[in-house]
Amino acid sequence: MKFFIDTANLQEITQASAWGLIDGVTTNPSLLAKEGKQDSRELFRDICALVDGPVSAEVIALDAKGMLREARELAKIADNIVIKLPLTLEGLQATKALCSEGIMTNVTLCFSANQALLAAKAGATYISPFVGRLDDIAAGGLELVSQIRTIYDNYDFATQIIVASVRSPLHVLDSALIGADIATIPFKVLSQLVQHPLTDRGIDAFLADWQKTNQ
Ligand code: E4P
Fold it and tell me: What is the ipTM of this complex?
């Protein structure tokens, strides 16, 4: 299973890369806004240089023509740019066109299995079901990931599932058990994955015993 980091923060990306834990990055307009006013193209260029893996950059236009215009410009930034498009009919139309041009796509804001089926038929490289936002409305985000896994396996679709809107280590664990290809994880949750009180207690006990040896 691959891990992407869900952030546009360069420090977080640098730290997670140093840990050797991440295979790519996802961003969205809200994550970019958190980084304050700056040239987003510059920021994408910096992120792409830091990470040896796909970096998702989202289009803002709502019509296919506008999305394609933006996508082609974003794709020029670096070879590892993935164009993120919303799961609408216009977004699917643009996805299909980008697929035929060999540009990688990440279809985002997926909340149903039928939407994911359409994205795969459009040739999306990645589909992003938002588990946390579904859980927020008591709709069962992980159940959606499981349905998408079944459908993609039934028809051998090559579209990879990125579990998005991850809020906790349990989301990551359940995604791995379902067989999702990727989880895109916020920095805080990535840091939480390693934590276990018995590990900390074990280290303390080993160090205390070591000191008794007077070495
Ligand atoms: C990533 O591709 C998504 O944009 C992101 O995971 C959404 O997360 P949120 O629901 O916490 O905003």
Answer: 0.98
